From TrEMBL:
InterPro entries: PRTase-like (IPR029057), PRTase_dom (IPR000836), Upp_B (IPR034332), UPRT (IPR005765), UPRTase/APRTase (IPR050054). 5-phospho-alpha-D-ribose 1-diphosphate binds at R79, R104, D131, P132, M133, L134, A135, T136, G137, G138, S139, D200. It catalyses: UMP + diphosphate = 5-phospho-alpha-D-ribose 1-diphosphate + uracil. GO terms for cellular component: cytoplasm. It comes from Floricoccus tropicus. It comes from the Bacteria. This is Uracil phosphoribosyltransferase. Keywords: Allosteric enzyme, Glycosyltransferase, GTP-binding, Magnesium, Nucleotide-binding, Transferase.
Length: 209
């Protein structure tokens, strides 16, 4: 069974409170989403493998640690996932970025896939799927289905705000993956929005309505 982790560092909680507020405009919202993604990047990269490397300090030769160069991929679910990419890339600049496009059918609330563009060797990469909101879980499940169909085996899901309904659905559909969230909110409302949530993350990131 994958793990479920709420990354509730005080800095993350403080920043999340700012972006939840209606009065926070697009520019600040986008900047803070990036900052939170970077802070989460620190935690989600905690278990990256290290290897020994022999180096010379001004004093002596010594064996120290470096990242083992495991291949990584960040895969945002479009649109809103794009808002989290730069923050994680600032910590892990060598990661490749794939894209999975989903939109939510406003009537059925079901996700529909319209684009999949991934690094060629996606089956060999440690993948971080990113989407700010884990609401019904529909998009996350479909995105991970899509990655597994292409041979991916090592997948983690990273979001800012999650609903218990979405966490349950994702864990049931993909029990092998680790889920990281900055907050576990109360519930979904009848329109599929997370309560209290932060509204429509894509609209707030890109200034659309
Ligand atoms: N997607 C969003 O952007 N916000 C929600 O509350 C739910 C899904």
């Amino acid at each position: 069974m994958g793990t479920f982790q709420v990354i509730d560092h005080p800095l993350i909680q403080h920043k999340l409170t700012i972006i939840r507020q209606t009065k926070t405009g697009t520019k600040e919202f986008r900047e803070i989403v990036n900052e939170i993604a970077m802070l989460m990047g620190y935690e989600i990269s905690r278990n990256l493998p290290l290897e020994d490397v022999e180096i010379e300090t001004p004093i002596t030769k010594t064996v120290q640690k470096q990242l083992a160069g495991k291949k990584l991929a960040i895969v945002p679910i479009l649109r809103a996932g794009i808002g989290m990419v730069d923050g994680i890339l600032s910590l892990i600049p060598a990661a490749k970025v794939g894209h999975i496009g989903m939109y939510r059918d406003e009537e059925t609330l079901q996700p529909v896939e319209y684009l999949v563009k991934l690094p060629e060797d996606i089956d060999q990469r440690q993948i971080f799927v990113v989407d700010p909101m884990l609401a019904t879980g529909g998009s996350a499940i479909l995105a991970i289905d899509s990655l597994k169909k292409r041979g991916a085996t090592n997948i983690k899901f990273v979001c800012l705000v999650s609903a218990p309904e979405g966490v349950k659905a994702l864990q049931e559909a993909h029990p092998d993956i680790d889920i990281y969230t900055a907050a576990l909110d109360d519930h979904l409302n009848e329109h599929g929005y997370i309560v209290p949530g932060l509204g429509d993350a894509g609209d707030r990131l890109f200034g659309t309505k």
